[in-house]
Amino acid sequence: MADVDSGSGKADRRRRDRDSDSDEGARKERRREGRRDDRPSKHSSRRRDDYDSDGQDSGRRRERRDRHRSSPWHERKHSQRSRSRERSHHERRSRSPPPKRRRRSVTPSQSPEPHKRSKAPLPSQDESFRGEVAPTDGSAPPPQKQKPNYKPTGLLAKEANTVAGTTTVLKYHEPPEARKPPAKQQWRMYVFKEKDLLDTIYLSTRSAWLMGRDEKVTDYLLEHPSTSKQHAVIQFRHRTSTDEFGDKTSKVKPYLIDLESANGTKLNGEKVKASRYVELVDGDVVGFGDSEREYVMMLPPAGT
């Protein structure tokens, strides 16, 4: 009996130990689950004061959310996200790669030189026009510009300067300053052949004397075959001169001009340049072509 009782007692103790172990394990399991429930998860890290009792957002959370959305950092991030979305959308639509921009290579010879600003004073327009300003770079001075001349050239009159009844065109036209000498200046020209006086020409009766072989147009006929048809002209011109004291004097003086003759015109034994006026004075000797005749200019005293 005693063995039976002892065996049943052992079985009862084992049963109680098993029950106690299971109860202890259940308690440990419950404690473990309770800790897991109390531990905050990474997805539910929200503050308790952000929600009301019914689970809706509180005013503090809404205020913080509105302040975050209105911050410039949020707007910048939002614009960056929108640009990245548009870029990715464009890249998805266009399958071809974007074109590569070629960089233009500039050689040293083609590279523009920097503009050098001069610190020198600017010359006036009047001085630069006259050529009085010396160049600053050390080069030769610019050539002097020719001033405009608005006086009549006589080209139109030369084209229409024909003698009535003939087709001969005169090679000479009187200038605007042509004048007849005054009565007190009785200019004369004496024609000599060696020592013989052949003729006397009263020059003061006309303002110009055309000398040549063409008897239809000339004022004085030259008979030597070496002279031209329109050889030379003796022209009286009104000229104004200024002396060393600044006083101006006006006189009518005789001038000699060669009309580009074949054998030229001589003054005191020397040939004169063609188409240029040469002043004549009392006692000058003029020769035309190869003629041996001498034409002497004389200005007799007043009253003779």
From TrEMBL:
Ranges of residues in domain FHA: 209-272
Pfam families: FHA
Top-rank taxon, per record: Eukaryota
SUPFAM superfamilies from the UniProt entry: SMAD/FHA domain (SSF49879)
Biased composition (Basic residues): 61-82, 90-105
Bias (Basic and acidic residues) ranges: 24-41
Region spans: Disordered: 1-152
Protein name in UniProt: FHA domain-containing protein
Natural source organism: Saxophila tyrrhenica
